[in-house]
């Protein structure tokens, strides 16, 4: 298994398909993964295979690490296009997420005022007022919504809380009043799900069919985000039976979003 556990709290810069020269900010421990989802396509692997022993970086450690890296990049004449909160799990779960966003915006204004601040989130904490308010301060509030089908979510995104309710998530994304970018993974293939006694069941995890695309499009229209990003598997995944959605499938979905009057990009 060739999955990626990122350094913490700062990694990169790396060239992102969607974001340009991106300096990564990882609010999770450096030796494992902490996420409220356990996606079968996660490039960091399955939660149960990468339980961390270390703690998360503190707010102070994040600010110090980011400032040191921005100074170093400035000296080298390298200018980030974006400061991206991503890494080994869900960034908005950090208890000081709101303060870290304030620090990051200040450091961005000081060292690289043209750079955007982006947060890649699975949307599970957007009902927390402090998280919501912090996300309103970032340039790119990128929120995952892979489908609106509850069974598909439980098979593919696999929320760790039984209280997860996609209808509430849709309302939560809508409450940003357009200050949100929906990010959706489209893929094909199969996944072997095991019941409590270990009995395997092979399930189809394609979400490119109309059964999934039409209700998702209806939700996108209802939310009215500033933009939608559709993408597919790019790196190695912990489940090796997953397949990429085709260019044609992604382009068709992208064009249907654009037909709703919402900008949309497709990454292959
Ligand atoms: S939400 Fe992101 S970090 Fe969490 S399991 Fe899914 S892909 Fe991995």
The helical percent reads 25-40%
**Bound molecule types:** iron/sulfur cluster
Name the shape in a single word. globular
The neighbouring-strand order within the major sheet is 1-2-3-4-5-6-9-11
Q: What is the residue-averaged pLDDT?
A: 95
Question: Care to count the β-strands?
Answer: 11
CATH architecture assignment name: Alpha-Beta Barrel
| Total domain count | 1
* Euclidean distance between termini CA atoms: 22 Å
- Unreliable stretches (pLDDT < 50, length at least 5) are none
Keywords: 4Fe-4S, Iron, Iron-sulfur, Metal-binding, S-adenosyl-L-methionine
Cofactor: [4Fe-4S] cluster
GO molecular function, one term: catalytic activity
Protein name: Radical SAM protein
Description:
Residues 17-263 form the Radical SAM core domain. This is Radical SAM protein. Keywords: 4Fe-4S, Iron, Iron-sulfur, Metal-binding, S-adenosyl-L-methionine. InterPro entries: Aldolase_TIM, GTPase_Obg, rSAM, rSAM_sf. Its cofactor is [4Fe-4S] cluster. There is one protein chain. This protein has one domain: Alpha-Beta Barrel (TIM Barrel). It is globular, with a radius of gyration of 18 Å. The chain is 32% helix and 22% strand. The model has no long low-confidence stretch (mean pLDDT 95). With 268 residues, it is α/β, with parallel strands linked by helices. An eight-stranded mixed beta sheet has the order 1-2-3-4-5-6-9-11. Helix 1 packs parallel to helix 2 and helix 2 (97-111) packs parallel to helix 3 (129-137). The protein is built from seven helices and eleven strands. The two termini are 22 Å apart. Iron/sulfur cluster binds at residues 35, 37-39, 42, 44, 89-90, 122, 144. Iron/sulfur cluster binds next to loops.
């Amino acid at each position: 298994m060739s999955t990626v556990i990122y350094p913490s709290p700062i990694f990169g810069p790396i060239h992102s398909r969607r974001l340009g020269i991106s300096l990564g900010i990882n609010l999770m421990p450096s030796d494992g993964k902490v996420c409220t989802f356990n996606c079968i396509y996660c490039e960091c692997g399955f939660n149960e295979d990468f339980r961390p022993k270390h703690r998360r970086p503190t707010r102070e450690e994040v600010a110090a690490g980011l400032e040191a890296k921005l100074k170093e990049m400035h000296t080298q004449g390298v200018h980030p296009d974006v400061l991206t909160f991503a890494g080994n799990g869900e960034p908005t779960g950090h208890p000081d997420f709101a303060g870290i966003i304030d620090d990051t915006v200040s450091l961005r204004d000081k060292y690289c005022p043209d750079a955007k601040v982006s947060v890649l989130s699975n949307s599970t904490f957007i009902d927390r007022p402090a998280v919501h308010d912090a996300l309103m301060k970032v340039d790119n509030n990128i929120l995952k919504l892979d489908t609106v089908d509850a069974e598909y979510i439980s098979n593919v995104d696999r929320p760790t809380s039984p209280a997860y309710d996609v209808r509430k998530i849709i309302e939560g994304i809508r409450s940003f009043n357009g200050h949100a970018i929906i990010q959706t993974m489209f893929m094909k293939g199969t996944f072997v799900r095991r019941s409590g006694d270990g009995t395997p069941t092979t399930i189809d995890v394609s979400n490119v069919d109309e059964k999934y695309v039409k209700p998702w499009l209806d939700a996108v229209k209802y939310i009215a985000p500033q933009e939608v990003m559709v993408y597919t598997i790019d790196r190695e995944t912990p489940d090796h039976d997953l397949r990429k959605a085709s260019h044609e499938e992604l382009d068709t979905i992208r064009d249907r979003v654009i037909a709703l009057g919402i900008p949309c990009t497709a990454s292959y």
